[in-house]
């Protein structure tokens, strides 16, 4: 006899909708993001998406929050640099592993994130939601950089986030996206070590 599924054993409907919306943006762009299309992609009854997210802006805001949740989950996933104070090698390896993941199995999610971010640049109503969504990962990065001795960890985290986004964009959608070799973890680790050293350049 099968065990009934409890509410905690499956994603809630808002999460299912947000995940489906993100996948639609990754594959069809923002033109494919409609309430009806999300219902179909999520396998939900017609009208489900509009019930939870009445407007397109609300649906996009849910995507921002879900993307931030997933990215922060990746950051906290792989050990999260345990209890002992981290060193530069550990943080470089963590960041390289994240980049490798986001350039390979997480590629579609990052493409959706870039496209949804551009929508916020065109629609001021969405900008505050995007800003809030991006704070979690930056706060965690600031904590790690502070543990490495950064004099101004928040500034260092913002710079590191900008470089990380630039690298992701270049590899996923930039001019070299189709001519670069497949992401190599050793190469990414060397790159992230240079990034960490640079943001900590004023730190003894």
TrEMBL record:
Segments forming domain HTH tetR-type: 11-71
Pfam families, per database record: TetR_C_31
InterPro entries: Homeodomain-like_sf (IPR009057), HTH-type_TetR-like_transc_reg (IPR050109), HTH_TetR (IPR001647), Tet_transcr_reg_TetR-rel_C_sf (IPR036271), TetR_C_31 (IPR041583)
UniProt entry keywords in alphabetical sequence: DNA-binding
DNA-binding segment(s): 34-53
PROSITE patterns: HTH_TETR_2
Name of this protein: TetR family transcriptional regulator
Organism: Streptomyces melanogenes
């Amino acid at each position: 006899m099968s065990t009934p599924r409890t509410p905690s054993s499956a994603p809630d409907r808002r999460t299912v909708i947000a995940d489906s919306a993100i996948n639609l943006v990754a594959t069809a762009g923002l033109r494919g993001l409609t309430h009806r299309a999300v219902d179909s992609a999520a396998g939900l009854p017609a009208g489900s998406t509009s019930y939870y997210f009445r407007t397109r802006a609300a649906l996009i805001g849910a995507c921002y929050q879900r993307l931030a949740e997933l990215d922060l989950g990746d950051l906290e996933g792989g050990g999260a640099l345990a209890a002992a104070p981290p060193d530069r090698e550990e943080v470089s390896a963590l960041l390289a592993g994240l980049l490798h993941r986001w350039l390979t199995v997480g590629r579609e999610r990052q493409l959706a994130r870039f496209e949804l971010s551009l929508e916020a640049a065109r629609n001021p109503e969405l900008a505050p939601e995007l800003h809030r969504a991006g704070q979690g990962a930056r706060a965690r990065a600031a904590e790690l950089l502070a543990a490495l001795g950064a004099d101004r960890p928040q500034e260092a985290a913002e710079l590191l986030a900008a470089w990380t986004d630039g690298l992701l964009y270049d590899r996923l959608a930039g001019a070299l996206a189709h001519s670069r070799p497949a992401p190599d973890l050793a190469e990414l680790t060397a790159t992230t070590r240079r990034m960490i050293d640079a943001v900590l350049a004023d730190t003894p």
